[in-house]
Amino acid sequence: MNSEPLSERIKQLVEQPSESLSVELKRWIDPDEIEGIAKIVKTAIALRNYGGGYMIIGFDNDTMKPDINNVPPNVRTAFHVDKIQGMISKFSSETFEIKLHFVPREGQEYPVIEIPVGVKTPVAAKSELSGKNGKLLIKTDTVYIRTLSANNTPSTTQATWKDWNQIIDVCFDNREADIGRFLRRHIGGLNSDIIREFIAGFSKLEEPPKSLEEKLASYLQESEARFKTVIKERGITLPQYGSREVAFIIIGEVPSHSANNDFLNLLDSSNPKYTGWPIWLNSRGFTKEQQPYIFEETWEALVIEQHWGQSIDFMRFNPKGKFYARQALEDDLSKKDYGPVPLTSLDPSLHIIRTVEAIAVGIEFAKAMGCKPENTQLAFAFKWNKLQGCRLNSWARSRIYGVSGGLAYQDEVLTFVNIPLDTPHSALAQYVSHAISPLLRVFDGFEPNLDVYEDLTRRLIERKL
């Protein structure tokens, strides 16, 4: 069992369960029965091939409600980590170490099996397992994957020829990350600016052209106006807080989609949900006023949540390839005892992580929509508001070297960056730096070195925050 404290991400998986390509829900199963073993093993292999994820036991994947039937007398004994690890090691062609979390909800503990990232060759079943009736439940040499069904809902199945591109891409990204770490170890003595330029040469770092910047700025203004209209129509009074806005437009051919439930299923299934409160979250299981609705062929949702620490989110999903998210700054709405006074602080690590998340999720959305990576770019705009009078303060995460509490004298920062869709996770840090460095420089010229961006990017993608 994992002895570390439960992260907000792990707690949220049980408090607000939803399925995606990286998350599978299962009713209570018996891990001592052949059928239960087969379900756990196939899901673990599939999640490993996807790039890591979670298997949550004890929930109905149709209703997302707890399964009150067949609860084992002792959950921790039934799902002991040694038992689960042993069955995966027995049937998986690759040995990988899982983590097992037990998350309480309404007096009941639910097992969450965490599958790590890092697959470098496709994982297959190395042994077969047959049911009591002779039916083959696990097939030797079969590669299991997470994929989307006809209505864009996720499922675990065996790979076909159509799935090999994605499987190999995941493996290649992990190998490329290893190469990147190797290079950084061996060129670590070089000036960080030289390394930055070296990496930029490979990553095709560029800002959107002026015409595209104007288009993004216009979309930001349109979306902000929609937010204000919705707030006014609902008669909502909001506290004083700063906000972070992100918009991106897909540049290239966007396959045809409509503002229907299949489109929302597609986005929800492809969202990696890297954090406990992910960007562009699925609010269909929330209260009526928080659920998504359609306005002029665009899905919108306003989520004002207090249960998980105050959150104010407004999201837009346009099937033509335009996305927007506005989030209240955690610095201003934190309920934690050590949280700062609103409108006084900005944690640099927190905002780097949120920028990485927005870019990584945007890439997954575009890929899920069927855009061709080699012919597509994502044009991003990032905007931060109500900064004047704030100081850098590492209140939420570990301190970054050099943070001295510099004071912001300007109230708003707007940045733009273009990102090729075929950019691997291991190369995202350079784009993140380009997107957020203008924000951090407002605070007395502070600018982290590239290692900080690399480290936080890797930790988010590998779910090791």
Supply Rg: 22 Å
Spans of at least 5 consecutive residues whose pLDDT stays below 50 are 186-190
Terminal CA distance: 18 Å
Counting DSSP E segments of at least 2 residues, the number of strands comes to 17
Q: What structural category do the secondary elements indicate?
A: alpha+beta
- Domain module count: 2
Strand content: 15-25%
Helix-strand sequence: HEHEHHEEEEEEHHHEHEEEEHEHEEEHH
The level of helicity is 25-40%
Largest sheet: 7 strands, antiparallel
Give a written overview of the molecule.
There is one protein chain. Helices cover about 35% and strands about 20% of the residues. With about 475 residues, the chain is α+β, with helices and mostly antiparallel strands. It has two domains: about 160 residues, Methyltransferase, Cobalt-precorrin-4 Transmethylase, Domain 2, CATH 3.30.950; about 250 residues, no CATH class. Strands 10-11-12-13-9-15-17 form a seven-stranded antiparallel β-sheet, sandwiched between helices. Strands 1-2-4-3 form a four-stranded mixed β-sheet. The two termini are about 20 Å apart. The relative contact order is 0.11.
